[in-house]
């Protein structure tokens, strides 16, 4: 039901493109019938032959009634060339329009999937394989255009078939009924082929998903494979999956290539029945001669019936083999809609007073324990806050809630007294700037990685942000300056350079609040010192939240929050906390790191 509704919606959305495609197809069908009409007068040399050719084919054939046979042949030859030249032009247009329709539908469905992915909550993204997202969005959703094109292509074929069958019915009804009886019997065989096509398509869907996942996983782990001397095992593993993939495609090909010979065999069997029928009903040679034009006309038209029948069945088989892709795509889109992140309705432009966590508890899906339990604290606007704790203490979870990646299981996060979930995501992310431990850089220019293409990559804003992040001088030392490429994930830069570009990116839209989530944990002491200097300068004008295990980065904080097992065990200014010699904070300070 969901799939049928989705296909109907697609036809409603792209009805203009589909209508043009169908009209061109109908013109092709008309030219096919016109070609048959032109050929039929050759079958009989008598002046009365046109009366034996059924309507509407007789309309064109009647033109040649009073012509001599040789003259008739000359005109027919010239007209046939003209008709098939025009038909070739429309066939080309039909192919181009069909391809455009297919690409347009496929492109929009892939984009629809991607937009859906960008709108889901972080919990959903954490729980799915990224390769599955890619496969369903690109490989599977892309099949929608093909199915829409195939269905649209069937319409003119059915029209052609209906006119040809009507003509056959007018010539010899009994012979048509005889041939149709064979077709009805054969339809059982054809239906079985279509069913197998759908099953084979489902098998390909599964092997495609598996191959894409394993292929990307193996490439991601290639360095580890090499260091463990297991490259040969990786190649063998991929080879096995490719064998499964190849077998599934071969299975579908075995089914689809069967359609044409089966249709041809059915046609020949039907033709044999027709010939036997003629021999039975026209058992006298004189009767056969008298009806020769009608018989030959019937045979010519019947031979043309096989082409649309074969094309329709091939289209149905292709549609069936693609249905598993479409079902998965529809389920995927429905899934994305259900996992959409909750947006608010209040526009917020800045922090005027504070950000407050009020009795916040959070538990991840499929977890039996709370990651945060009854957490309460307040961050005053313009202050610097340090959050410390051992691994697994809940620091990053707390930041994820602040960034709206997740919603609290209970309790509230308030911004100037407004519940954070009521604030629009766009306005909230204008207020926030985030710097992660492992910043993601795109394989593009430094300028793009700072601006992300916003404001058409305003160079002046980019330079201002880079200067504040203490990275401008380095960028200008490069041959291409801000146009310099950073490589995949920033591989052409050092860890410190990547981190400072990440800080510049966070500063690009001049946020009120800067969140540093373990931003200096992987850096050497000299680089850390440089970045700390940049952060110190920023703390005079912005609210700073530092999540770290390096105590040296938070000793100048206005407030330090010490977490353990999802709870706040200490909270206060550094001077007061240092005086508590038996406290967790003092232990961490003496160790100068968190385990």
Mean pLDDT, nearest integer?
80
Q: Termini, distance in Å?
A: 54 Å
Main beta sheet: strand number and arrangement?
Answer: 6 strands, mixed
Structural class: alpha/beta
Report the C-alpha radius of gyration, rounded: 36 Å
Instruction: Give me the side-by-side strand order of the main sheet.
Output: 6-7-8-3-9-10
- The total tally of domains equals 2
CATH superfamily of the largest domain: ABC transporter type 1, transmembrane domain
In helices, the fraction of residues equals 55-70%
Second CATH tier, the architecture of the largest domain: Up-down Bundle
Which runs of at least 5 residues are low in confidence (pLDDT < 50)?
46-51
Beta-strand share of residues: 5-15%
Q: Please report the total strand number as a whole number.
A: 10
CATH class of the largest domain: Mainly Alpha
CATH fold-level assignment of the largest domain = ABC transporter transmembrane region fold
The geometry reads as elongated
